[in-house]
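Sample pair:
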Amino acid sequence: MRKPGITSAITEARGPHPAATLFLGLCIALLAAACATNPATGGHDIVLMSEHSEIKKGKEMHEEMIEKGVAYDDQKVQAYVNRIGQDLAAHSDRPDITYTFTVIDDSNINAFAFPGGYIYINRGLMVYLDNEAELAAVLAHEIGHVTARHAVRQQTAAAANKTLSQVIGVLTGSADLAQASNTYGTSLVRGYGRDHELEADSEGATYLYNSGYDPNALLEVIGVLKDQEQYNRVKAQASGKKPQAYHGLFSTHPRNDRRLQQVVSTASELETRQPKQIDPAEFRKMMDGLAYGKSSTSAQRQGNRFYHNKLGFTFAYPETWLVEPTSKAIVTHNADNDAEVIITIKRKDDSVTHREFLDQMLKAPKLFQSTAMSQAGLSGHTGISPSSDGENRRRVAVLYSGRLAYLFEGEVTDDRNFDSEDAQFMQVIESFRPMKRSEREGKKQQYLSYVRAKPGDTYAKLARGVRIPDAENQLRLMNGQYPSGEPRAGDWIKIIKQAT
């Protein structure tokens, strides 16, 4: 006779447990209300998020991240990646949603997607890509995650797993068993895992083919990741650390992975399409000058001073205050977040006075304590904009530096605190100045550059002029010749230079 399981044993002894009935009800409700056809696979998924909610959530996540100033500051590179991505998205299984493609100013090797059509690629990964088709393969793979709704399915799996572990705890009275169930379930849904990665590869290969790219570029990209994995494994063994794995836990090189090979070959069997005409020189032109390593354009703080290395300005802020740079403004505020100075940047207008420009930009037609400013070679104007229509008083200012105008708004949440906080606002404004030459030293950006290999060139020889750790192996990795390849005379190869 079959031994009763946990649930049946409890049911026979005491009748149906209320928690079991609740769990069954939840499952029926999920199946009845949340079954959706997957737009990429055609299968049926249990999801807890509508497409509208998915897009709204992705937009919120995107805006929150972009406000932190993470986007790479190179419009030609951003436009190039967006053009490729939009073409792929138009040939995807969800062409009707709006896609946003963003290059992230991060040296880590990564690409990712948010729900609803938000795709990201780190410039750190772009350094190691060899051509436009490989760049397209990365974007197509991430589009595959979006079209297959992996983030939504993952969220649903996580929610169901949490409910299941709670029910098991109630039914068995065992916190340990509930925790074990939750841990096991989480291990299945954390990250995308091999099955979801393969699904994204399958969709991505199709989108590549439909857009005129060779789907085999996907294998080349995964080969790039496996080379990085191999390199990290060697480094980890030497230091006793755990190596980093990439892309869905593939244990072999992509050219030896049967399932991946089948995914790519299936895409190539689709109806004949017109191959895309790609100019290799365009990719080199776009990547030449791409920042390498830690970006020197990022903000730095030393003591109670903020330094903007790219634009070359600095200001002091009160000792207990914080500074938060975003893509739209730099905000410094007190610990209670009830007093702040917002700094924005505009192109200056020499056809109007500083006072008139201040009014145009910050809507300050009336000013108390209106005063011209001159400091550290900069000219400007400041004053207090009076309260009106429920608005609190503001300290406003503008300073011209070169072709730019720096605008300051000092604000409080409670107007009764304005007089005491205005001294802090003026501390920020009056400390603003260009960075000194000594402050700029040591912050020179390294960047990617293409050169023609000469007869007799080796990566060991080229590495002598490159100031990066383990330069020889890094040059091999970024040129797709790790662990032992060498350049051929006449080949275009990537090297790393430092800004002078």
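The mean pLDDT is 80.
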